[in-house]
Amino acid sequence: MERWRILAVSSVLAWTLAACRDEVEAAEDGPRAVSFAPNLERRLAEGGVHVVDGPTTVWHDEGWKLAEGELRSGAKHGEWRTFDRNGTLRWRGTYRAGEVDGEERAWYADGRLELEGRRKLGLREGEWRSWYENGQLEWLAEYRDGLRDGECRHWSADGQLDASASGRYARGKRVAGL
User: Fold this and answer.
1) What is the domain extent for residue 65?
2) Are residues 91 and 136 in the same domain?
3) Same domain, yes or no: 73 and 2
């Protein structure tokens, strides 16, 4: 099995892949499992790194699977999933040409939903929701082009609407209370 070293640093949502095992494993028809290398520039194999296409697995330095998905021309594409050290799914999102584009969800370690929404070319778009660890809805907001736009409601962990943190937004700026 032939291996090449790649320097890899990335972030997805709130987590950083600063400590990945940086190896590319080649299969007969090309690379099949790699440590994550976002926005990998196309370089010739002559002493450099092959462009990575296909299923990709990211391993933490401690040996546990951190993420998996697909690379196309070295960029994340399609569904990506991240995991914690216990193998619990913590985040799932869809990429297109290296940008989060589509549905995105995050979960707490116990499997309860933490966050959900959609992105368009990396920016939040439409309705987004976030929950406290106890399952209570924390906030519900509308986004357009990555900015709050429309109603945003925020609740305390015990379910009480927080009027001071809720309101109507236009292009990311609060324009009125509820």
Assistant:
1) 1-102
2) no
3) yes
How many folded domains does the chain comprise?
2
In angstroms, the CA 151 to CA 173 distance is 11
- Considering the domain boundaries, does residue 88 fall inside one? yes
At 123-175, the pLDDT tens digits run 999 999 999 999 999 999 999 999 999 999 999 999 999 999 999 999 999 99
The answer to whether residues 140 and 148 touch, using CB atoms and an 8 Å cutoff, is no
| Predicted TM-score (pTM) above 0.90 | no
**Which 3-state string (H, E, C) describes 96-107?**
ECCEEEEEEEEE
Angle at 34 between CA 65 and CA 25, to 5 degrees: 120
Residues 165 and 129 in one domain: yes
> Structure tokens of 83?
């995991």
Strand order in the sheet with 147-154: 54-59, 65-72, 75-83, 89-96, 99-107, 113-120, 123-131, 137-144, 147-154, 167-170, 173-176
